Amino acid sequence: MDLKAAIRSIPDFPKKGIVFRDITTLIIEPKTFKSALDLMEKFCRDKKADKIVAIESRGFIFGGALSDRLGIGFIPVRKRGKLPAKTVTQEYELEYGTDIIEMHADAVKPGEKVIVIDDLVATGGTLEAACKMIEKVGGEVAGIAVLIDLAFIPWRKRLGKYDILTLIQYDSE
Amino acid sequence: MDLKAAIRSIPDFPKKGIVFRDITTLIIEPKTFKSALDLMEKFCRDKKADKIVAIESRGFIFGGALSDRLGIGFIPVRKRGKLPAKTVTQEYELEYGTDIIEMHADAVKPGEKVIVIDDLVATGGTLEAACKMIEKVGGEVAGIAVLIDLAFIPWRKRLGKYDILTLIQYDSE
Prior knowledge:
Strand order of the largest sheet of chain A: 5-6-4-3-7-8-9
Oligomer: homodimer
CATH class of chain A: Alpha Beta
CATH topology of chain A: Rossmann fold
Order of helices and strands of chain A: EEHHEHEEEEHEHE
Number of domains of chain A: 1
Number of helices of chain A: 5
Largest sheet of chain A: 7 strands, mixed
Low-confidence stretches of chain A: none
Helix content of chain A: 25-40%
Shape of chain A: globular
Number of strands of chain A: 9
């Protein structure tokens, strides 16, 4: 199935010169949403994942469905200050400055194989931070699955050591 | 299944005097996540839903899985400025001041039956705003499904005209 055709490209969002790749047109169409989930599900099964770790907030859409399909636990990675219990944290770089994401410290158990889910990889900064948190608590990043790959951004220098599934690639802006 | 037992209650979060009901302990456990989704799925089927509208961001976890189970489209309601195409917006009251949520204007088609999904109902302000947006574009709110019901807060005065499924009730803080 041509998943790329289901993505809506919106020029100059959120600012001039950026082409925003809008996934809402893919997830509103049951056939394309199912097809994307089928591919991610197979990847998770091949990696024998014990848990799904999904990144706020679009990662939750795919992560929730995958956790349900696979019958394995769902763990949210959230922006700072949203998770109520004891957390592990990780700082990551933004275009200007830094930000912090968090995960509950007791969520991933030592030795567990985890798949990290998000909607898109661009710089790879958030995904790298999520992987570092998982490893801090003794988990194993069995793989990363994302819908959209902005392949013209050199995210592989950050995430090169992980096995990554991307379903739709853009080679230029 | 005792879903309430799977919720972790955390005193004084996000501020003193508030008991935070933490759903992460329910969704990390496949049995309780599945059980909650089974009940929501039945509700959506009974209502003959055409679309799932889920509220950012914890609503996405349940909404993604339900959309997948039912084979119907997923529509995100997001905080202001996140959705890239033309949106419909709705203001709602916070404890101090107001906020705005948005939905893509072309997402719900006139006459479609929609189920609104979130993790929790407290004041009902966000859910009411989501319902108003759906109605603005001609959709029909066939029902609302949430995991947690803070029943000691009088949200029914806002949402009384809708059919609402809540899975876990708290009668006091």
